[in-house]
Amino acid sequence: MADRVIFGSDHAGLALRAEAVKVAKAAGLDAEDLGPFSGDSVDYPDYARQVGEAVAGGRARLGVLVCGTGIGMSIAANKVKGVRAAHATTEFEARMARAHNDANVLCIGERVVGLGLGGAIVKAFLETPFEGGRHARRVEKMTAMER
Description:
Blueprint: E1 4-9, H1 14-26, E2 30-33, H2 44-56, E3 62-67, H3 71-77, E4 85-87, H4 91-101, E5 105-109, H5 110-127, H6 134-145
Parallel strand pairs: 1-2, 1-3, 3-5, 4-5
């Protein structure tokens, strides 16, 4: 589980999800891709739930969700207890989401960032550790809000 990353998207995020899986595998991580595997219309909350539950349940250390904008996936994933999903449009946001917020799910939009920047955002998210320290207290406060 320690090095497993789980991926999902809707029909608007197929290409960037495939790129994100490649980025994870290139970094030596175990990548589990939940699909979808065709361009047929699907409902993003279904994939947000599957990825969120896998991360919250310990099946994967991190998750990556892709839709058209990343916004819907972020809203849906954050409904799963134990998920700290961050919507990121830059590498800096992805790094800070991990370093300061211990985000465990990245949400990105293929129509917003495209494949090149999207891959770089995923790489930044996967490579950045949580800093802990003063940030741990703040993350614990967020976690307490779920109880």
